[in-house]
Amino acid sequence: MSNPHSQLHIAIFTDVFLGIPGGIPSSIRAQKASLEALGHQVTIFCPGTQKDYSNPLNKFGADHDPNIILVPTAKFLVNGAPFSKWTKYVTRFIEKKYPNLAETFDLFHVHYEATTSMAGLLLAKKYGIKVIQTMHGREDMAIAINVPHPLKTLAATGINLIHRATLKSITKKSPKPDYQNTEIKNLAPTIARREMWQMMVRQANLADQVITPSAHFAKKLQLFGVTRPISVISNGINDQEIANFTPQIRTYQNDEPLRILWFSRLSKEKRILPFLESLRIAQKLKPDFRFIFTIIGDGNQMSKVQKFCKKHFDEASIKILGTIPHQEILQKYTKDQHLSIINSYQFDTQGLTILEAAACNLPVIYADPDMSEIVPNHGGLCAKSPAPRAMAELLLEIYHQPELIQKLNQNLAASEKTYLQSHQIEKLLKLYRQLS
Question: Is the pLDDT of residue 325 over 90?
Answer without folding.
Answer: no
